[in-house]
């Protein structure tokens, strides 16, 4: 589809106003960090917000959600009530292209032959409006190495590019097109100058990325050969098992299912799903106490293997979109780019 | 849209049998779906049992698919959910979702001899194979069961084992000398080596503690079994059962989908992550 239009910056707020019925999310600064939040009155998108601490993933796949409620009567007969979400239309502005690509990866996990109705209900009702990263929002960005780019449209419904006094707005999907049609008169056709400036913005955005993964396509094969290597012990030594790397990752999807009681007898409560991580020691622990991934080494290996080997073997994609969060936020500076660089030189 | 995979179906406990007492008790539960929205399973598959308010646990279905009246689960009391299950009474209602996982290729095995080798609670997943072979007796050749546990009091299905005498080659064992025990004394792998079953046109299916499986496989190999003739099941911690929660994997395999049944030829290629 991709039909570019021009939106003067002063028309941004009027466009958002036209989106009645939508819950609007955008990156906002709160207590010194940037996060995605529902906003009442969105006037502008900051031209230079850094990488948000959490990915917008949490809007579609929240950290905690109720799957169903259960209630038991006096005879002990339980009744289950499904609590499917997604009645509200939502639009997220300012989505970074890497986070949007990550949504295409969680789509794979939560779709397939057995779909996940909770994820899908929210996903279908959510419109992702991206913003080209004219400047990389993190010094650890490396999206081009894993198949993305700072202006990638993948996973987005609309891509916006900031050209100073105006945006180039590109509807990628029908969902995106619909959003533009709510305020047709605010958008104009691009001129040759607009197109030229857009092309320059794209090239510049790519050139400003500082970090990269070497020969990413060779990683699955290399990782496969070094499963048993003491390499992992050495690399994981500093890990304090906080799980930050995975909780902040836009592509990670692991979760736990637990019951929460609101009244003990007869049992009444809810089954909830919460994010979980392969970096926690009890993630894989059997009830016998046996643990197939008992140490930090096996857990770091799992994180990298899942992203750069298993997912590739199953779906032909890295399960990493290069957002850099796991690198920037790891309290002990475990850096997957550095580790994967060494993987290339590892003698199996 | 397909039905919500996380929503359990309700099932009533129709019978509970105490198989093993002591500190590691085992009970066998037979369950019937409430209403007619149940599911049918195949040999080797598992189901997620829910005790509402406590949580879920993945348990292998020990009844044969030929048994249409109930689903049977033999459950060792070990974690939070299995402890709650052990507290339940006949008539209580729990949740079941599934069935999950791949299956023993019992159709492919038609015309072959079957040797089933179990240790302790590991008899449960292979019990469905045994009963399927017994139910379709003319489809299979010779049937043998090697089964052992620490003491005779730890044998699951002891009454049924009595009835099986004469219907198949039954090789029971206990780990150490015991008064009144006329079966084999020693570990299950040693019993297998002692009886020397022939690999000729035979499939061996083994399930039990990992250490037992390891030695059973070594001994079967010694007797001339090929990797392709040996099957086992693996366990890993599970939450979703549908390849989404990301915790049951062995390398790139999700045990809840690609397992739990593996031939040794397949399993030995996977990393030791179970
Ligand atoms: S963020 Fe760093 S320290 Fe924390 S679990 Fe991940 S690798 Fe380990
Ligand atoms: S693995 Fe790290 S860099 Fe890659 S998408 Fe996840 S958080 Fe971002
Ligand atoms: S149990 Fe969730 S992925 Fe297998």
Structure, explained:
The complex is a heterodimer of chains A (348) and B (274). Chain A folds into 2 domains: 186 residues, no CATH class; 117 residues, no CATH class. Chain A has 12 helices and 11 strands. In chain A, helix 7 packs across helix 10. Chain B is α/β, with parallel strands linked by helices and 274 residues long. Chain B has 2 domains: 92 residues, Translation factors (Elongation Factor Tu (Ef-tu), domain 3, Beta Barrel); 121 residues, 3-Layer(aba) Sandwich (Rossmann fold). A 7-stranded mixed beta sheet of chain B has the order 10-9-8-7-11-12-15, sandwiched between helices. In chain B, strands 4-3-6-1-2-5 form a 6-stranded antiparallel beta sheet. Chain B has a two-stranded antiparallel ribbon with strand order 13-14. In chain B, a hairpin with a 2-residue loop joins strand 13 and strand 14. Chain B is globular and about 50 Å long. At the A-B interface, strand 4, strand 5, strand 10, strand 11 and helix 10 of A face strand 4 and strand 13 of B. Bound molecules: iron/sulfur cluster (SF4) (2 copies) and FE2/S2 (inorganic) cluster (FES). The site of one iron/sulfur cluster has 14 residues of chain A, from helix 11.
């Amino acid at each position: 589809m991709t039909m570019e239009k021009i939106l003067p910056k002063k028309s941004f707020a009027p466009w958002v106003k036209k989106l009645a019925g939508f819950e609007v999310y955008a990156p906002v600064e709160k207590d010194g960090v940037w996060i995605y939040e529902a906003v009442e009155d969105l006037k502008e998108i900051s031209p230079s917000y850094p990488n948000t601490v959490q990915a917008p993933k949490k809007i579609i796949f929240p950290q905690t959600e109720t799957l169903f409620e259960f209630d038991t009567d006096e005879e002990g007969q339980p009744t289950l009530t499904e609590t499917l979400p997604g009645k509200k239309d939502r639009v997220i502005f300012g989505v970074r292209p890497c986070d949007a690509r990550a949504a295409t990866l969680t789509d794979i996990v939560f779709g397939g032959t057995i779909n996940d109705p909770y994820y899908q209900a929210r996903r279908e009702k959510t419109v992702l409006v991206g913003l080209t990263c004219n400047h990389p929002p993190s010094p650890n960005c490396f999206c081009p190495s894993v198949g993305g780019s700072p202006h990638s449209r993948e996973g987005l419904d609309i891509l916006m590019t900031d050209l100073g006094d105006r945006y180039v707005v590109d509807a990628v999907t029908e969902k995106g097109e619909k959003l533009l049609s709510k305020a047709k008169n605010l958008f104009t056709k691009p001129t040759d100058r607009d197109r030229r400036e857009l092309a320059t913005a794209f090239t510049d955005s790519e050139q400003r990325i500082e970090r990269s993964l070497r020969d990413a396509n060779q990683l699955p094969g290399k990782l496969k050969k070094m499963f048993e290597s003491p390499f992992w012990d050495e690399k994981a030594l500093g890990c304090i098992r906080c799980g930050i790397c995975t909780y902040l990752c836009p592509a990670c999807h692991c979760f736990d299912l637990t019951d929460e009681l609101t009244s003990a007898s007869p049992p009444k409560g809810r089954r909830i799903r919460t994010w979980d991580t392969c970096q926690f020691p009890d993630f894989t622990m059997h009830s016998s106490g046996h643990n197939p991934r008992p140490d930090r080494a096996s857990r770091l290996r799992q994180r990298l293997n899942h992203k750069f080997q298993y997912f590739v073997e199953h779906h032909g994609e890295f399960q990493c979109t290069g957002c850099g969060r796991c690198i920037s936020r790891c309290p002990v500076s475990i850096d997957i780019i550095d580790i994967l660089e060494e993987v290339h030189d590892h003698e199996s | 849209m397909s039905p919500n995979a996380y929503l359990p179906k309700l099932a009533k406990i129709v019978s509970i049998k105490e198989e093993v007492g002591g500190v590691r008790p085992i009970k066998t539960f037979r369950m019937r779906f409430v209403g007619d929205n149940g599911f049918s399973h195949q040999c080797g598959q598992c189901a997620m049992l829910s005790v509402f308010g406590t949580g879920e646990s993945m348990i292998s279905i020990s009844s044969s698919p030929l048994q249409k009246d109930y689903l049977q689960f033999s459950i060792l009391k070990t974690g939070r959910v299995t402890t709650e299950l052990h507290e339940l009474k006949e008539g209580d209602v729990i949740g079941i979702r599934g069935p999950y996982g791949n299956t023993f290729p019992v159709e492919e095995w038609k015309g072959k001899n079957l040797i089933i080798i179990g240790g302790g609670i590991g008899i449960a997943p292979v019990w469905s194979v045994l009963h399927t072979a017994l139910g379709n007796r003319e489809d299979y050749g010779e049937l043998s069961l090697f089964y052992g546990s620490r003491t005779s009091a730890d044998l699951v299905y002891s009454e049924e084992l009595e009835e099986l005498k004469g219907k198949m080659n039954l090789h029971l064992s206990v780990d150490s000398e015991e008064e009144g025990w006329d079966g084999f004394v020693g570990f299950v792998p040693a019993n297998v080596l002692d009886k020397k079953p022939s690999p000729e046109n035979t499939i061996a299916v083994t399930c039990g503690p990992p250490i037992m499986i390891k030695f059973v496989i070594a001994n079967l190999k010694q007797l001339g079994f090929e990797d392709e003739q040996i099957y086992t099941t693996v366990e890993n911690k599970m939450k979703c059962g549908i390849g989404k929660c990301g915790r049951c994997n062995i390398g790139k395999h999700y045990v809840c989908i690609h397992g739990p049944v593996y031939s040794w030829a397949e399993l030995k290629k996977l990393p030791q992550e179970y």
